[in-house]
Structures are given as structure tokens and as C-alpha cells.
Design a protein that fits this description.
The chain has four helices and ten strands. It has about 190 residues and is α/β, with parallel strands linked by helices. It folds into two domains: about 55 residues, no CATH class; about 120 residues, Rossmann fold (3-Layer(aba) Sandwich), CATH 3.40.50. The strands form two sheets. A six-stranded mixed beta sheet has the order 5-6-8-7-9-10, with helices on one face. Strands 1-2-3-4 form a four-stranded mixed beta sheet. A hairpin with an 8-residue loop joins strand 3 and strand 4.
Length: about 190
């Protein structure tokens, strides 16, 4: 089945998907990349291939980092890099409007933290130290250092840790709606 790209697949029980059924989509994104997306595996699509792979392009949408299959988008280009790090239970798509604004002058990379968005779920490793190691590995793998690191909420915890542990990877750090204060102990069960 081949479909034009129309955005994310809806979860089971959502409008358009009957309970007990799953939807499989495949087709091409506007930039020419092809995908196959299995409804039961939303956090890690079964396969992603495209013209970029055939041409040997290093900017494929996944990187295996520290045991996690991490999804990212990369506008490419020769400008300075801006890396976007999302908040808890969100994805890099939350920065789509910012990327649209900056992509003409900057290389923009947004990634989904492990277990969130389209990145793979791992058996362990959802603490800030592990998420920070993933971010550092992505920056190093893509040769982005020093980069502008922009983050929101939980992504801010990652950014602050990254600045403290590997300051040579960052040119600037932009903190949005985050805090350096410890998380209140009563908040843990909420997550």
C-alpha cells in the first residue's frame, strides 16, 4: 500500500482507527524520504529508507546512540547548528515552527529523546545522565560542535548537564521553561 505522506498515524481507538485494528502506512515524505510505519510500533517505525541512504547521505533520521535508536531530523546546510531538545513526553516536532524560521540561516536538528516521539524504547536509561549522554553522542556523531542548544523543560535539564559535563560541545545554551532546582520528591509518582 502506498500513500502520500499525511503526518502521524493515529493511535488505536482514535478517530479513524477501529479498536483492535492497526494501521500500516508507507509512502514518501515531502523531502523524498520513504517510510513504512506500523501502528503497533509508533515509537520506532519498522523501516525508514530513502534517497538519502542510496546517495550515502550521513543525515539519516536515526542514530544508534548508547543502546538507543534515536530519531532526529536534520535540515542540513552549512550554517551554524541549532540542536533542539524537547520536554518530557513530547517530541522534536514541537520545534517545527522554530526550525521553519531558522532553517534558512542555520542547520537545524531536532531529536526525540529515547522512549519518546519516534525514538526506540529501551529497557532502562531514562535518567538525565543517560539522556545527556545521548545528546552529546548525537552532537559528536553529526559533527555539530560547538552548537547552539535550545531546550524546553526536561530538555533544559539535559542542556544544563551537557553544559556542565561537555562545555566544548556548546556555543550557546537557551533554556525555555526549565529550572536548575531539584524535582519535588512528590512529583515522581505523577510520571
Amino acid at each position: 500500500m502506498s500513500l502520500a505522506w499525511r503526518g502521524p498515524v493515529r493511535a488505536e481507538g482514535a478517530r479513524g482507527v477501529a479498536p483492535g485494528h492497526r494501521r500500516v502506512r508507507q509512502g514518501s515524505q515531502p523531502d523524498g524520504r520513504e517510510y513504512r510505519w506500523d501502528q503497533e510500533n509508533l515509537v520506532a517505525p519498522l523501516a525508514w529508507r530513502g534517497r538519502a541512504a542510496a546517495q550515502g547521505d550521513e543525515r539519516l533520521p536515526y542514530a544508534d546512540l548508547n543502546g538507543a535508536h534515536v530519531h532526529f531530523t536534520d535540515t542540513g546546510g552549512d550554517g551554524e547548528a541549532i540542536v533542539f531538545s524537547h520536554g518530557l513526553l513530547l517530541s522534536g516536532t514541537m520545534f517545527d515552527e522554530q526550525i521553519a524560521h531558522f532553517r534558512g540561516c542555520y542547520r537545524c536538528i531536532a531529536f526525540d529523546h529515547r522512549g519518546q516521539g519516534r525514538s526506540g524504547v529501551t529497557e532502562d536509561g531514562y535518567d538525565i545522565d543517560t539522556l545527556t549522554a545521548d545528546a552529546a553522542a548525537l552532537i559528536e556523531r553529526l559533527g555539530l560542535a560547538p552548537c547552539h542548544f535550545v531546550e524546553l523543560s526536561m530538555g533544559g535539564f539535559v542542556g544544563m548537564q551537557l553544559a556542565a559535563q561537555k562545555p566544548d560541545l556548546l556555543k550557546t545554551l537557551t533554556l525555555l521553561d526549565t529550572s536548575a532546582d531539584p524535582e519535588p520528591s512528590g512529583d515522581g509518582p505523577k510520571y
